[in-house]
Structures are given as structure tokens and as C-alpha cells.
User: Fold this.
Amino acid sequence: MSYQKLKVRKLTPRIGAELFGVDLAQPLDNETFREIRVALLENQVIFFRDQNITIDQHKDFGRRFGELHIHPAAPSPEGHPEILRIHGDANSKRVAGEGWHTDVSCDAEPPMGSILRLHTVPDTGGDTLFASMYAAYDALSQQMKDFLAGLTAIHSGEQVYRGRYEYDGGQRDDTRKSFPVNEHPVIRTHPETGRQSIYVNASFTSHIPQLSRRESDAVLGYLYAHCARPEFQCRFRWEVGSIAFWDNRCAQHHALWDYFPNVRSGNRVTIKGDRPFYRAQTPERTAIAA
Ligand code: SIN
Assistant:
């Protein structure tokens, strides 16, 4: 696709592109919005620099792409239920996203995309890695693709969120809280591009119910190692005011926590998605998607 409004510079051939020529503090005209959407679909994650926007402008930008998602477990800042705070400092015991995942894949309809802006960054470190699950799928043998096509996997919020957040004024007691658990296809067809991608991740996925536990652990272990191969990845170096916007339907990400005890902080707006499905690809469909 050729862009009229934006300059798009790819980070790698498979995933990631930096976008220039847009100021998200200004109203977004329809053509620029359309090009941002195409850039996201083509690159799976897009990046903007020097975006000086308020929380409301951040939410408004997210709303152009769909209804905003409210996190099923993390508390939100007063008056902004759609904001997920991303924060690490000298008191942190853990940080969000430290491990390969797609956001909230335990939901029945997991988020289509997430838009993270950082306002405080460490001098070095705190990069985020993104991995193309299209590229990971494409690199599998046909026999492996056929085997995985018939399988589903269980995604559990429990194993990620239990004991993690403080509620009701600082209490970590979540014994009365339940977290989403859902079953999704192991291979997911992207609802807009029609491309296939691997849709299991080491953070949320617990097992493949069609297999014995040992078989499931072995297959998932293989897929996690395969999906984390460096040739499927790009790596983003944050600056103050940078924004990353990723497509959770075809990309995984991993936030590196190598900056302790320094501070890294920002806000994430997350956009609702739809129920993942697998549709076998016909030759005509493959041609359209390409
Ligand atoms: C996340 O949203 O998973 C965190 C990403 C990051 O902090 O880079």
C-alpha cells in the first residue's frame, strides 16, 4: 500500500513500523485514520514518537478503532476505567507484560488492539519486544499446521492475575474474585486480513484439552520456543511520549524488566475484540489475504 498522509518506515520485514506525519493531539481526519489502520494491519505493531496527548485524547484515539475494553482484574485510575496503568519502580515486585503474551487472551472476546503511551522512561532498558504470529505460523511445516488446526487451548486469567493486584484500598485479598477462563483455537484466522497465526501464549494458556497433559505440555513448550524465535521479532526503544499500538490478534509482546530500580510509567488504552475463530484457508482466500 502506498501512503499519502503518513510516512511508514518498517523496523523489520515481518513486523513493526514507525509512523511519521501524525500529531494525535490534533483531530484525526478520515484519510489519516484509514492509513493508520492499514499500517497496523500490514505491520501488526506501529509506533509513534513525541505524542504529547492527554488521557482523554488517548482514549479518543482508541475509540476511533472500536469500543474500549475494561480490564477484568487490574484496578484503574479514578475516573478512567478504560485506562490500564503500566508502572515499574524501585518498589515493584513485578511489572505487567513481563513474559510473552497477547493481552487478556483469557477473555471470551480478547482485545483486538492495545495502545500504550509512556510518559516516564528509564535512561536505558525497558524495551518491548513484539513477535509476529503470522511469521511463526508460516514457518511451521504443513504437517504441523494440519495437526494444530484441529486443536483448541484453554486460556486462564487465574494463572496471571491471582494475587497480583491490590483492591479496596490496598488489600491484596482477591479470594472472592473470579477471573475469566476461555477456550480458543490454537490457530487463529485474523478477522480482517484472513491470515492464520498461532494463538497460544506462555502467560495465559494452560493446556490443550484434546491432548494428555504431557502431550499438551510438550506441544505448548515447542510452540512457545518457536514463537519466541528472534527472526519473528522487532524490538522497540521507548522515549518520553512514544506510543506503541499492537494488534493482539496476530502479535505477541514481551515487556523487558531490565531497568530496576528505575522508573518506567505510562497508560494503556485497550480496544475490544471479537471471539477468535479458525477458518481453513481456500486458495481464493489465501490470494485475497496476500
Ligand atoms: C503490556 O501491555 O503488556 C505491557 C507492555 C509494556 O510495558 O511495554
Q: What stands out?
A: The domain at 7-271 is CATH 3.60.130.10 (Double-stranded beta-helix). DSSP finds seven helices and 15 strands in the chain. The two ends are 12 Å apart (CA to CA).
